[in-house]
Amino acid sequence: MSSELLVDLGEDPATQLGQLKLATIEDQQWPADESTLSKSETDLSQRFDAGSPHLPWDHPFYDIARHQIIEVAGDDNFGRKVIVFNACRMPPHHQLDHHKLLMYLKGTLDQYVESDYTLIYFHHGLTSENKPSLSWLRDAYREFDRKYKKNIKALYIVHPTMFIKTLLILFKPIISFKFGRKINYVSYLSELEDVVKCEQLIIPARVKEYDNKLRASLKPTAQPPMSPPRSPPLPNQMFGVTAFLCVLCVFCVSGLEIEGIFRRSANVTLVKEVQLKYNSGATVDFRETEDVHLAAVILKTFLRELPEPLLTYQLYNDIVNFASVSSDSQATIMKTLVESLPEENYASLRYLITFLAQVSANSEVNKMTNSNLAVVFGPNLLWGRDNAMSLSAIGPINNFTRTLLDQQHLVFT
Question: What keywords are annotated for this sequence in UniProt (predicted)?
Fold first, then answer.
């Protein structure tokens, strides 16, 4: 993976690209936009709701969602939410409302921008047929204010071409220094393993095929490493052992009054060191690091690393469709579902939810209400068998988690 950051580019784009001459943003004669962002349309982002298994045909974002251009893929290796944008799934211009696409993207990000998050952009498949206009790209960048840019920790552009690199040079005058440092180029899918497990991403077949062609075109000595297979548990491996959950919760108790607990990432190097220590059977004392966010990230990572989600694949359909249960019956139905879990899963879930209830009891200080905790923990308690999390499922799963936190005193009695 290379970090060809915008701040490292030369002041003269022509120097970077031979004889290619590029005008600055201010010099461009931008064409008039086909549509402006009216207030009524902008408000659609506020009504964004992925709370049903399938968006109805009359939903304002149905035409966008059905293409699966934007996906949520759980957390990365450092506990940050991962948002994926697939260029190859964008249909031709006349079949896509780019304004609505922007609003849909904003609506998705609105659910996560208060926490640290990662954006992965699969560039392969962007063609002259589906490529948005420069004026749209300009307006899109400006539409995302500080709220969206502050907590994005990294933007990974996978399979970059000369076009996208040229475009970033062209936009350099309006891209901030801080944001430019967050942009990284990824040449091969295997390089993403340092950031997120590729098996949890819904990578389009076209992108995988293109990656294989790129690898095949290299000389044998220049072949990048393949994505490593999921390794079997080590003899002393803690990640993947449900009973370890209680230990991590104890360390997180000290952060009950820290604002944003569970919403911030930790030092990347420390996260890897702690994982390695636990998996080798070494003792870890979080008091030595004095970083409660480290323990919080390890807790979320632990849940995501389980070979099967804590709520199990068996309950997936029941939980995704739980929104159809009447409010009067929710506590009873939820109690039945939870009690059907294997004994160890039930005990661990009860311990975790009881602990999170303590966290939300201090929400006036730490700002972690049941709704906020559900957004953080929902995708780490349940996911599909393909390890991915679609936008249509994440809403119901988060809703179930929030209700579980709201009704925990009735469910676990």
Answer: Membrane, Transmembrane, Transmembrane helix
Q: Quick one: pLDDT band at residue 211, thresholds 50, 70, 90? A: very high
Contacts of 214 (CB under 8 A, 6+ apart): 159, 187, 188
State how far the Cα of 345 lies from the Cα of 362, in Å rounded to an integer. 26
* Cα 220 from Cα 218, distance rounded (Å): 6
Residue 122: partners with Cβ closer than 8 Å, 6 or more residues away? 84, 85, 86, 87, 88, 158, 159, 203, 204, 207
- The highest-confidence range among 104-108, 117-121, 245-249, 342-346, by mean pLDDT, is 117-121
Q: For strand 70-75 and strand 81-86, is the pairing parallel, antiparallel, or unpaired?
A: antiparallel
Q: How would you classify residue 405: left for phi > 0, otherwise alpha for psi between -120 and 50, otherwise beta?
A: alpha
pLDDT tens, residue by residue, 248-287: 666 676 677 888 888 887 777 788 787 777 767 677 776 6
Residue range 177-181: average pLDDT? 79
Overall fold of domain 241-411 = Phosphatidylinositol 3-kinase; Chain A (1.10.555)
The strands making up 183-186's β-sheet, listed across from edge to edge, are 70-75, 81-86, 117-122, 152-158, 183-186
Q: Which of 248, 242, 239 is nearest to 355 (CA)?
A: 248
What DSSP string runs through 356-376? HHHHHHTHHHH---HHHHHHH
For residues 405 and 252, the model is more confident at 405
The token duo for 333 is: 């139905």
Contact predicate 393/312, CB 8 Å: no
- Which one of 3.90.1170.50, 3.40.525.10, 2.60.40.10, 3.40.50.720 gives the CATH number of domain 61-217? 3.40.525.10
The dihedrals phi and psi of 146, each to the nearest 5 degrees, come to -60, -30
